[in-house]
Amino acid sequence: MVFAVVRAGGRQEKVEVGSVVTMNRVVADDKGNVNLPAVLLVDGDKITSDADKLAKVTVTAEVVEDLRGPKIRIQKYKNKTGYKKRQGHRQELTTVKITDIK
């Protein structure tokens, strides 16, 4: 069983071939593929964490869809001063499917 831990949109995700991951928005190339940098590679009993060897490892993913996350409402309030502030945010997300780990 081969899996890798990749850096994906500010976080680290454990992925294997065929897994689907939702991460912060990434820009794909003209074919719709994204290369993700590996942080750790596990190939059976062999574990690779050396940066020089991991530079040669490529994790390729195919973009499934671009979407937006749920609406987050931020509210601030200070008592007795009349200060109220309401703000909203929706994170830009991308869903990718891992196609290859070499």
TrEMBL record:
<dbReference type="InterPro" id="IPR001787">
    <property type="entry name" value="Ribosomal_bL21"/>
</dbReference>
<dbReference type="GO" id="GO:0005737">
    <property type="term" value="C:cytoplasm"/>
</dbReference>
<comment type="similarity">
    <text>Belongs to the bacterial ribosomal protein bL21 family.</text>
</comment>
<dbReference type="GO" id="GO:0005840">
    <property type="term" value="C:ribosome"/>
</dbReference>
<keyword id="KW-0694">RNA-binding</keyword>
<protein>
    <recommendedName>
        <fullName>Large ribosomal subunit protein bL21</fullName>
    </recommendedName>
</protein>
<keyword id="KW-0699">rRNA-binding</keyword>
<keyword id="KW-0687">Ribonucleoprotein</keyword>
<dbReference type="GO" id="GO:1990904">
    <property type="term" value="C:ribonucleoprotein complex"/>
</dbReference>
<dbReference type="InterPro" id="IPR036164">
    <property type="entry name" value="bL21-like_sf"/>
</dbReference>
<dbReference type="InterPro" id="IPR018258">
    <property type="entry name" value="Ribosomal_bL21_CS"/>
</dbReference>
<dbReference type="GO" id="GO:0003735">
    <property type="term" value="F:structural constituent of ribosome"/>
</dbReference>
<keyword id="KW-0689">Ribosomal protein</keyword>
<dbReference type="GO" id="GO:0019843">
    <property type="term" value="F:rRNA binding"/>
</dbReference>
<comment type="subunit">
    <text>Part of the 50S ribosomal subunit. Contacts protein L20.</text>
</comment>
<dbReference type="GO" id="GO:0006412">
    <property type="term" value="P:translation"/>
</dbReference>
<dbReference type="InterPro" id="IPR028909">
    <property type="entry name" value="bL21-like"/>
</dbReference>
<dbReference type="Pfam" id="PF00829">
    <property type="entry name" value="Ribosomal_L21p"/>
</dbReference>
<comment type="function">
    <text>This protein binds to 23S rRNA in the presence of protein L20.</text>
</comment>
